[in-house]
Amino acid sequence: MLKRMLRAARLEVGLYEEVEGDKSALGQAMLVVVLVAIATGLANLSGAGSLGLVVGVLWGLAGWALWAWLTYFIGTKLLAAPQTQSNWGEMARTLGFAQSPGVLRVLGLIPGLGTIIVLITGVWQLVTMVVAVRQALDYTSTWRAVAVVLIGFIPYAIVLALISQLA
After folding, report:
1. Neighbours of 24 (CB within 10 A)
2. In a 3-state reduction of DSSP, which class is residue 68?
3. Are 130 and 67 in contact (CB under 8 A)?
4. Which of 145, 90, 15, 30 has its CA nearest to residue 153?
5. Which of 23, 26, 33, 42 could disulfide-link to 64, CB 3.0 to 4.6 Å?
6. How many domains does the chain have?
7. pTM of whole model > 0.85?
8. Residue 73's domain spans which residues?
C-alpha cells in the first residue's frame, strides 16, 4: 500500500489505472483517507484536541465518500466524454489514493510550518485528484478533469462550511 501511495503522490498515471480496476483496493483507499485524516488531526491536535481528531477522521471518511459521489455524478452525467465509463467504486478508489500527499500534514507539528504544509499538500492533492478523475472517467482531456474537480469542489465546500458551523 505504501508503494501505491508514493506512486499516487508522484502522479503516476499507471497507479490510478491500477486502483481503478482493482476492486479489492477500496479498503486500501479508505485506509489512505484515514491516515491523511489522522496526520491532519495530529497537526491540529493542540487546537482541536483528541475529540477533533476523532471527528476529523469521521469527516475525512464521509467527505471522501461525498467527494467520490460528486465527482462521479458530475463526470458521468454532466461532463461525460463519449468514452466515459465509471462507477462510484472506481472513483472512490482513485480519489482515496489521490489523498496520499496529505500524510505529510503531520509535519505541521513542527512550529511555524503548519500553514505552509497545509497549503502545499492541499495544492498537491488537488493535482492528484485531477489525475485520478481523468483516469477514473477515461478522459483524454485534463481540462475536463479540472472542470469536474472545480465544479465538485463548490458543493463539497458548502457542505464542509455547514458542518463547521454546527461544530
Report:
1. 8
2. helix
3. no
4. 145
5. 33
6. 1
7. yes
8. 2-166
- pLDDT tens readout for residues 29-42: 999 999 998 888 88
The Cβ-side half-sphere exposure at 7, using a 13 Å CA radius, reads 14
pLDDT digits (tens, 9 = 90+) for 122-157: 899 999 999 999 999 999 999 999 999 999 989 888
Own/partner pairs, 9-12, CB within 8 angstroms, 24+ separation: 9/100, 9/101, 9/124, 9/128, 11/127, 11/128, 11/131
First to last CA, the chain: 33
HSE (side-chain half, CA atoms, 13 Å) at 141: 13
Query: Rounded distance, CA 160 to CA 11, Å?
Result: 26
- How many Å apart are CA 105 and CA 117, to the nearest integer? 6
